[in-house]
Amino acid sequence: MNENLAALLPETVLLGAAVVGLLAGSWLPRRRQWAVAVLAAGACLAGLAATAWTMAAGREQTVFADTFAVDTATGLGRLAVLSGLLLIVAMAGPAVRGHARESEFYVLLLMSGAGTLVLAGANDLLLLFAGFLLAGVPAYALAAFAKDGAGTEAALKYYLLGALLGTVMLAGTAVLYGAGGSTLYGELRATLPHAPSGLVAVGALAVLAGVLFKAGAVPAHFWVPDVTDGALAPVAAHVTTLTKVGALIGTYRLAHHLLWGTELDWPWLFALLAAVSMTLGNLAAFFQTSVQRLLAYSTIGQVGYVLVAFPVAARSDLAQQALLFYLLAYTATNLGAFAVVTALPHARTLEDYRGLARDRPALAAVLVVCLLGLVGTPPTGVFLGKLEIFQAAVDGGYTWLAALAVANTVASLFYYLRWLAPLFRPAPREQPAAAHQAAGRGAVATACAAAAVSLLLGLVGGALLPLTTGPLLL
Hints:
By secondary structure, the chain is mostly helical.
């Protein structure tokens, strides 16, 4: 049995920092709780260094009885999640600075991030469920961190739906164990093709319900608008971006190892989920006036684009690299948009952004880059990611799905422009003076850094795409 703890260094660093941060926060005076934020940032940097070393050394392996895979997908998932956590820690500083539970905020963020990494590398159904819980339970607390009415309602909806679908996921794990005699992907891959198809279908659908809930895909998307609108903007950024990365990589690994080998037509199910998610997300965003609710429905639509790669996973070599690169680019671009929202806490609606180009030209420029990036406009990274996903769909024989994704991309331009247009209009006289007052330099710097990364990924993406190839280990 390979019990190499060094292979789990990024996850271990995050959990270790969470424990140290919890203990330190109990003793530090309130004015020095920021030290826990520095600790969290240091843990993210250490995790990134460990990830870069592992990927550069080519140390692909499975550890602890093959329950966790350290491969290309895990490595890129770590890069996306740890980089995203670093950005969220930076943007959250002004929002929680001096709060009575400031240290607990960063501890919960680190724990949820560690759970997200577990989701990305899980090679066993029970470990996948453990990652679901570790990523979810701290996030429920984060959603209610502000302890106001909207946050409490958001946390309650998030928790109730998570508890329901978590129970369904655990039941599905039990069903698959009964059908295949194991929870390990490597063993189930050999036994499930010979198991009763009805039993496999019920178990797999139940497990998918849990991980797709984390991703915010239809039909488990109902929590996304309320949580995004009710929680603090950095928390909304985390649950709509980073947990999505871990859940989608975990789903892809599950589908690749278990589902494609059975007699059931799973590709058509994923094609349907992709089509409905992107269409519903875009249509629901059309007439939103709250910027956070608009971003919430945007994330549902973005999940639909990512799911386009799933039906062709067994038919096109481009599917995996398109999925992984898109997630990297989406992480930077979406976090950039949320960083602008965090930097302008008093600008809650689209109209509140009128005149931003004159008052805050840097933030306006970041918003233009990130929102047009989410559409898929060159030279941003999302453009290259979408191009790869559309090409993979065509190569895999799902031309109709690629055409629907293109149509949705064009349609999404409408509601992103509804947000961008007010930036260049004169501000109304009755607009409060505080509407464009920045909360702090951290969020502004984070927004600029995220937009720069989004552009950089688009400009040098061709050189990075080869890094996204590599087998999924069993």
